[in-house]
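Re: the pair you flagged

First of the two:
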Amino acid sequence: MQGKLSEIDIRSILQLIELGQRTGELFVEAYPSQPVNVGEPIMVQLSDARIQPFAEQSWLVFFFNGQIIYAADTDTSLSRLRDYLRRYEAEDALSRLTAQAIASTNALEYGYLWRLLENHILTPAQSRSIIQGMVHETLFDLLSLHQGAFIFELGSPLSPQLTTLEIAPLLARTMKQVQIWKQLHPYVQSPEQCPMIANPEILKKTLSNRTLNKLAGFVDGKTSIRQIARYLNRDILTVANAIYPYVEQGVLQLTYPVSNGQSRGVTTKLAHPSELESYRDVRKPKILCVEDGDAVRETVRSILSQHGYDVTTIGNPLDALSLVFRLNPDLVLCDIAMPELDGYEVCAMLRKSSMFRQTPIVMLTGKDGFIDRVRARMVGATDYLTKPFGESELLMLVEKYMGSGYPERRQPGES
């Protein structure tokens, strides 16, 4: 099984592996993104809020009978394992070990982890906790990814096994965190950003000396949000929520790291609130909903408008075809069962135009059958949403292709 993430998303891939109880390896590679110039400090404007600090990245996930054994990116530096060992004061033990045969494969980190367990440097419970953390943070990255390619190869399982993790509960938990994380944009953009103190005087007035001294060890511009989460045995969302109010106030600022561990000099600095509002207006994703049901149209319009999307709804598919070229939407939601023209015909007509060959088209229907899904794919539909759907289902699907809208920001100190 292989393909592009524009054709099938990570969640669906994992669900298929779980459903088929497959054993093997999933390799995912992100498409290279726009590079960030290194060498001099630059300000990341709001229009660059989606910029990524690295040109490309890839990940491996190992499965046994439809369950996850281990997951990691393809970095072989052992820096992630060393971060996890820090919470047990065991990071220095790595230099005294040689990994067993498994480390000669593409799971070097896993081999060293097993050796730490064999040498009684870690307990079985500690090893399982580290694996769970590694798998969760890898899935967080993968479920946040929208552009890339994947290959799943059947094969022998990674052995020996420290633990196995069920996919369904992991997906539910991680997808929820990805949704909440998007609400932190543009103040907090990436788990790889490193917080540093920008205004120590205000911080001294806000925090006690004890808390400030403890915080100073982490917010040094060299330690990423993800590393802080590893050290404290917390998830990245908890850490990001804790620093969010201070970043919003300008007390802390965020930078990207470089390979030698020093600050990259790419600082997240925000514009004046009036500029932010202007940016939101310009960047609102445009969505067209073609649906003959009044109630569904109003539901879609209400939900998406509240979350910062520019929504146009229309009940007549013929009128929609004449309107769509003028609107040039970023995403089309299209009902299947409609008079005069059904959704399959509308989708097929749009795909014949070069203007809409790459536009995500999501089919809305009350039918939940395999044949309907196959037919939707055959006419070029990007995805499929079954009615009735809730607010979270609609938002999750729209954000998968558009990213989040611009929800109201929480006030500083609000959890």
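Second of the two:
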Amino acid sequence: MTQDTRAYQSGFGNEFATEATAGALPQGRNSPQRAPFDLYPELVSGTAFTAPRASNRRSWLYRRQPSVVAGGYVPFAQPLWRTGALQGAALPPEPLRWSPFAIPEQPLDFVEGMHTLALNGDVEAQTGMAVHVYLANRSMDRRAFVNADGEMLVVPQQGRLVVTTELGVLEAKPGEVLLLPRGMAFKVALPDGASRGYVCENHGAMFDLPELGPIGSNGLANARDFLAPVAAFEAPGGAYELIKKFGGRLWTSTLARTPFDVVAWHGNLTPCKYDTANFMTIGSISFDHPDPSIFTVLTSPSDTPGTANCDFVIFPPRWLVMENTFRPPWFHRNHMSEFMGLVYGQYDAKPEGFKPGGASLHNSMVPHGPDAEAFERASGSTLQPQKLDGTLAFMFESRYRFIPTEFALAGGALDAQYASCWQGLRDQYKE
């Protein structure tokens, strides 16, 4: 790329202006009769034209060749990437848990290695989401991917990702997350070799920062800690394969040259990365265990106020200081459905059975909570200030029920003994 790929701009949803070649950005108008350097202006709109100004997302790209220059599309075979709730699927109201997913030995890149675990909603109605795990061991070279169905929130768990996008280059390691807008081309390189991580494919409203309410003006994720790339473009260098996800199916086309040819751009529709170490954790300093909503990083709202299409929630290192309180998550049944993953460390409510690279699913009104060991320890320990350190778990939470895929249920990682972790919780009622 022709620009320093380590350079970033900060701020979630900010209006940016950046150029890899001085003078490439037109001044005073977005689509002049002839753009500087004979570049092509191209508008990418992430929201409807008439969306309110505060929530309107779009970017102007000035590129060497417009993205309309592409060949015809033919189907691309990737049977493990699924979209939309499985209609009529019979799913018992049981908790589910998976061991860490093994990375296959056969060569797989980020697209080939995508394995859908659970789905809900309807991509055509722009509702719901899908949860995937990527199991990859080779970089995408002359191959690019466009997801026209939704934005992608990528949570690396093993290995760094270097993601080349139309607007520049982002690098993310475990502990950081990437947000890739709907409809924007990207490719993924694996500098550390075999890599694994989680993906939320959001078909609903775009992710945004949650409102802070009584918390005030500071707390949770700060907009300035989200980093967008500076403009960078790739030398032509031969043909590219372009894979596009459209209407729940994957298609492939051949481009005569690179799609990463944007010399300059300005706007507020951008890929970005976020380091979860910058999350300002809020918690109780007196008693009781607060709701996990205080750990929300990003939210995709639905048409029901306060009820998300999808929330991205993290459980990072933090102090526990509550007095006379059961400190781990209590036993509960929720309106929202919860898919959890563990990036590293140990989760306090499941100290043994929940491993990094694994996952769990508790659908709406399915009871869950700490296992018997965690309950006994938390109920009888002497409470002192305690630092939960060296751990990062996360949750994709949705108003819609998740339907597991065939791979999730029969791919070999499902823990058939999960429910046994609660069998030691005996009736302890004393008259």
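The mean pLDDT is 94.

-B.
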